[in-house]
Amino acid sequence: MKIPFDQVHVDLAQYDYPMDIGSLFAQKAPIEIEIGSGKGTFILNHAQAFPDRNFLGIEWANKYLLASVDRICRWGVSNIRLMRTDATDFFRCYLADETISVLHLYFPDPWPKKRHHKKRFFNQENLIQVHRVLTTGGIIQTATDHRDYYDVMCEVAALPEIKARFDLIDFVKSPAAQEGEYVGSNFERKYIVEGREINALALKKK
Prior knowledge:
By secondary structure, the protein is of the alpha/beta class. The protein contains 8 helices and 8 strands; from the N terminus they run αββαβαβαβαβααβαβ. The chain starts with a helix and ends with a strand.
């Protein structure tokens, strides 16, 4: 059954902060967030695999966001919401303490130029915010095709301020991931075909 556009698409301008993120969904359930949901392949597959969870996708590129909303509406997947916003601002301003159970961050823009490194989401300041909004035992799952960014992720995860808040754990592959994949997204499959190395990292809130 097709779902109305406004049920899936979230207009953040209509909400004060911190927002009651649970009010976005019809069912009361653990909430998982994906930053950079792209065309929606991962979040759609994951939401179908886990109908007892709620999923919020954040995407900055409006053309991808609208395509994802249309796709989810047509498929009738009711436990997904999507919004266009800056993820760093959203975590800092809109999310209350201990409100999400998992953060998914897959194939983020590596911002390879040194002067742009400050734009990378996976940094100490943002991880402290993620720690604040995760429930006890909450998880961060991330994967990248960019070796330099992966090395930086490992360095950040090893910082004393981060090690005091998180334990390094094994990455749990998506049910939609095929052999040799972690996530099963369009980007991952494209990068594997191109011969790029994929690395994954997972952290659990202490």
